[in-house]
Design goal:
Shape: globular
Structural class: mainly alpha
Oligomer: single chain
Order of helices and strands: HHHHHHHHH
Helix content: 55-70%
Strand content: under 5%
Number of strands: 0
Number of helices: 9
């Protein structure tokens, strides 16, 4: 898709801000929207990705999973391509935990490479923000980072953004 379309990412930022308007991060103080904003900044400025779909998906990545937004809302506002990426980044909370994680990984593996890029940005941001997480949540971060890195490995050769993302995530998690 090339250069980021300012109108699309601005619309995605506004949509995400409205969707997450009553949520806060685990510290109980930080508005939740700070997380998707940082994920988008990571995609653009740390990973060097200017793809419009990736930027929009980064901003919207938690809307289906954590708000009343559904796939059709994202598709209607941002198209099937972005909705597919966001959908791949959405865990099916109706499934038992063990099945849910396996299903999530399988869908991410089949998804557009940009879903895995956004997942790495999500991991990167959660790792940066881990001081604000509970001990239980912090304990899950290394395993999540390993899974995201393994899923991204096949994309490294074809996408310089993914190569930068893998290096950045490995650097921050010490792998």
């Amino acid at each position: 898709m090339g250069q980021v379309n300012r109108d699309a990412w601005q619309a995605a930022a506004a949509f995400a801000a409205r969707a997450h308007r009553h949520q806060v991060r685990n510290d109980g103080r930080t508005p939740y929207i700070a997380h998707p904003m940082r994920v988008a900044i990571t995609v653009r400025h740390v990973f060097g990705c200017e793809d419009e779909g990736a930027m929009c998906a980064a901003l919207l990545h938690d809307t289906i999973e954590d708000t009343t937004t559904d796939y059709d809302d994202v598709a209607g506002g941002f198209g099937e391509e972005v909705a597919g990426i966001v959908g791949a980044l959405t865990k099916n909370m109706a499934m038992p935990l063990a099945e849910r994680e396996a299903d999530y990984d399988a869908r991410l593996a089949r998804a557009d490479w940009r879903a895995r890029l956004v997942k790495l940005a999500d991991v990167f941001d959660n790792w940066c923000d881990c001081a604000e997480l509970s001990a239980e949540a912090r304990a899950k971060l290394p395993g999540r980072a390993e899974r995201a890195l393994a899923l991204a490995e096949p994309d490294r050769a074809g996408h310089p953004e993914m190569e930068r993302a893998v290096r950045a995530v490995r650097g921050i998690v010490g792998m």
